[in-house]
Amino acid sequence: MTHDSPNGAVPGSDLTLLLATERAMAERLAEAERAARELLATARAEADTAALALDGELAAAQARFRADAEAEQAREAAVIVEESQRRAAQIDAIPESRIQELAAVALEHLLRGMAG
After folding, report:
1. Alpha-carbon distance 105 to 116, whole Å?
2. Contact, 11 vs 2, CB < 8 A?
3. Are 21 and 10 in contact (CB under 8 A)?
C-alpha cells in the first residue's frame, strides 16, 4: 500500500516501482512491435510465394488454352480441307459433256431472261 508524503510527493519506493513498471511495459511494447513486424514480414513472404504460384498456374493454364485452341483450329482446318477435297473430287467426276450441257441450259435461260 502506498502513502503520499505530506507535501504530495511520491515516496521513493513507489517511484522506483513506477519506473520499473514503465520500463517493463516499454520492453513488452517493443517486443510486441518486433513480433508484429516479424508476423508482417512472414505474411508478406507467404503472400509473395502464393502470388508467384498463382502466376505460374495462370501461365500454365494460358499455355494449355492456347494449345487446345490451336489443336481445335487444326482439327477444323483438316475437316474443311477434307470436305473441300471431297467436293472437288465430285466436281472432277462430272463428265465434260454434262458440264457443257448444263452450261448450254444456263446460257439459254440467261438469253431468254434478257429477251424479256
Report:
1. 17
2. yes
3. no
Q: What is the pLDDT of residues 11-54, one digit of tens each?
A: 778 999 999 999 999 999 999 999 999 999 999 999 999 999 99
Which alpha helices (H) appear in 1-116, and where do they start and end?
12-92, 96-115
Helix (H, G, I), strand (E, B) or coil at 9: coil
Decide if 11 contacts 5 (C-beta within 8 A).
yes
C-alpha cell at 104: 448450254
Q: How many CB atoms lie within 10 A of CB 10?
A: 14
Cβ density class 47-75: b for 16+ within 10 Å, e for less:
eeeeeeeeeeeeeeeeeeeeeeeeeeeee
Report the distance separating Cα 37 and Cα 40, nearest Å.
Answer: 5
pTM: 0.50
Q: Which three cell numbers stand for residue 112?
A: 431468254
Q: Say how many CA atoms lie within 13 Å of 5 toward its Cβ.
A: 8
Are 102 and 91 in contact by the 8 Å Cβ rule? The answer is no
pLDDT of 89 higher than 90: yes
